TrEMBL record:
GO terms under cellular component: cytosol
Annotated catalytic residues: E55 (proton donor)
Biological source species: Komagataeibacter diospyri
Protein name: Cytidine deaminase
Chain's role: This enzyme scavenges exogenous and endogenous cytidine and 2'-deoxycytidine for UMP synthesis.
Keywords, sorted A to Z: Hydrolase, Metal-binding, Zinc
CMP/dCMP-type deaminase domain ranges (all copies): 1-129
Amino acid sequence: MSNDPLVQAAVDARLRAYAPYSRFQVGAAVEATDGRIFAGCNVENAAYPEGTCAEAGAIAAMVAQGGRHIRRVVVCGGGDAACTPCGGCRQKIREFASPGTPVTMVSAGGAVLQVRTLADLLPDSFGPDSLT
Ligand code: THU
């Protein structure tokens, strides 16, 4: 049990992951700049490429509730190693975050394993400003 509600949201979401194929459960939580927390988990599919990542679920939940800016991200994986966001999820986070936005990786129990900025994870990124 973490005393950080964002970590706890990611830990709780991981427990609800639907990952019968990989057996690799992931939870993610984003904190919007207005303080609201949105969580997601990976949702796999028998048609494997149709599965979705935990981060994508959390971001979709935020956007559906009107959130547009991410202040913090937490990703919760099950193994001993930090579950860092996949490349596609780094880009999805980029859409709604800033280079300095912290991305924290935690264990299944909520222990902090790594903290990186989005810019560390996705340097020289292409984002909304790149189109102007
Ligand atoms: N997964 C995530 O949910 N987030 C990531 O950033 C890495 C990978 C999921 C996708 C798939 O359901 C399982 O982990 C194994 O790749």
